[in-house]
Amino acid sequence: MASLVLRIEIQQQKRVYFPGETISGILHVEPASNVTCRKLTINMNWRTGGRGNTDEGAKPQTITLYTGDFKAGLVEQFPFVFTVPNGPLTYHGNLLYVNWYLKAQADIAWAIDPTAQAEFVIGSPAEPVPLDLGPNYKPPKPPSQKEDMPWWGYVICAIILGVLVYFFSWCCLIIAVPLIVFWAIPAYIKYLQVKKLGNRVLEIDPQQAYGGDPIAVTFRYQAKKQIKVEYISATITGEEKVESGSGSTRQTHRNPLFNEEQFLVRDIVTAPGVPASHRAEIYLPAKAAPTFVSPNNAVEWKVNLNIKITNYGIWTETYSITVWPTPGQEQFVPEPDWDDDDDDEDDNNVKPILKH
């Protein structure tokens, strides 16, 4: 039996807490015997769960409540107060969830340290404030002007390939030939056709938005030659992406959250030397899952520009965008969007979607 029993009581517990508010309570300590506690602490932190490897906050808020002796049967109480941080916000998805919790722990010499835990929810405040989107989040880079690779770039690639073949002979050929035949040559042929569009400029406005906002995609070019373009389109996608396992057993699991395509233009023949511009708008879902990025788990949003040239396949360029938590939304719970027929034994470890 544990020498101490810990119990966390959150006072006047709210259904949802917002950044900047306080969360307070009492840690109850019930000693079963006389015991010396080297340190009694309580901390506040976040943790991921679901199908991916677990990530958690690297710097939890920690309060040291007591150091000293406890007497058997004498229940003691220790009040605590934390300030709710700016995220990451609570998220309950299909492959991924992000939960916040309070964890108390007593450091007892030569014994298993007793612990207690209580969860709570952090929602998006009504007024927009800077929010934490995860430890690995980086703002999206703006699309740069697409300039054609100079001729000497292709010469360098050919020289590198020749050197590899010369020194590694058959081993290199076994790998290189399929890559060249089935990937490099088709990709290069498509690139040569897109190259005829001249210097290509893509604008995504805005690259950081809230759920329900429109994303405008504008594509400008000045064609060098006349080509037939079946269509130019923009696709916005959102997905949960999680990594499980490690080393050779590491796997990537994805769950689509959103996928919508709009055509900027269809069935045109470009006019050489004439500047052209095409535009389309795509609205994000009103309750879009916010961007989140940690080492093994992510909610990602992207814009894909697709160019279909007659007889030459589809050329795609991909850019990241940020979806900020919708102000005033208490909890982010996307609708399930995966095929139950694909479930396997790993799915039994996924925490069910919670609705409050």
Briefly, what is this?
By secondary structure, this protein is mainly β. It contains one helix and 17 strands.
Q: What are the SSEs and their pairings?
A:
Elements: E1 4-10, E2 22-31, E3 35-50, E4 61-70, E5 76-83, E6 91-92, E7 96-108, E8 115-120, H1 151-195, E9 201-205, E10 208-210, E11 214-222, E12 228-244, E13 251-269, E14 275-283, E15 292-293, E16 297-309, E17 314-324
Parallel strand pairs: 10-17
Antiparallel strand pairs: 1-2, 2-5, 3-4, 3-7, 6-7, 7-8, 9-11, 11-14, 12-13, 12-16, 15-16, 16-17
Structure write-up:
By secondary structure, the chain is mainly beta. The chain is built from 1 helix and 17 strands. Strands 10, 12, 13, 15, 16 and 17 form a 6-stranded mixed sheet that branches. The longest helix has 45 residues, at 151-195. The radius of gyration is 27 Å and the shape is elongated. Residues 335-356 have low confidence and may be disordered.
